[in-house]
Amino acid sequence: MKLAVLGASGHGKVVADTARAAGWSDIIFFDDAWVGKRFVTHHPVVGDAEALFRSAAEFDGVIVAIGNNRVRLDKTRALIDAGGNVVSVIHPTAVISESSSVKQGSVIMAGAVVQADASLGTACIINTNASVDHDCRLADGVHVCPGVAISGDVVGGECAWFGVGACVRQGLRIGADAVIGAGAAVVKDVEPGITVIGVPARPAS
Ligand SMILES: CC(C)(COP(=O)(O)OP(=O)(O)OC[C@H]1O[C@@H](n2cnc3c(N)ncnc32)[C@H](O)[C@@H]1OP(=O)(O)O)[C@@H](O)C(=O)NCCC(=O)NCCS
User: Fold this and answer.
1) What stretches in the chain show pLDDT beneath 70?
2) How far away, in angstroms, is 198 Cα from ligand 1 center?
3) Which of 58, 103, 142, 179 is exposed most, by the fewest CB atoms within 10 A?
């Protein structure tokens, strides 16, 4: 089973490890910096993004491993348009409720938990040991960083970013492109595009 990964980054390394654990035997990277970067750990970097777009349909699966939420989502949509079989990669130690749903191009890392009736959009990242509780609805391109705890029935808008170790009270609405700072405790809705930090979280000045 051959998986092509776009993005030879630190995040890409973790996606590759996750994919190996999930049963992908052959992992190949593409990145615009490929001339100066030939390996991600022991996985080869074989071409730039254009090369992947040309050959996407030849792989059993493709996934984008780029940290920037908007870029990851745009490239994922472009790969779908290019005929790639964009897959989600889920670590075997993640616990995913059978009543939850995960769209294509998302990655769920080791130790993450996605609870009952939660839904994840396209190109989401649920990072190491993060939890997304019941009935949460995370839109396309959301990144839930390591150790985040999102309580039940939270809505995360497109490309919202939940920083490492943050926690979010139940039932809140986090707007598109909002940024939740590392370690923040979110107790009120967050408007689109706003960055909040601290305990309790308030808009960053
Ligand atoms: C909130 C955040 C986006 C702000 O980044 P930034 O705009 O580059 O901010 P700066 O580092 O310049 O810091 C600006 C001020 O905010 C403070 N600050 C930054 N992040 C903070 C946080 N998470 N909580 C509390 N205060 C914070 C800084 O101490 C600094 O205060 P000062 O002006 O009194 O010195 C960033 O700090 C953050 O938390 N990112 C999440 C990172 C993450 O989760 N990475 C995991 C990747 S998997």
Assistant:
1) none
2) 9
3) 58
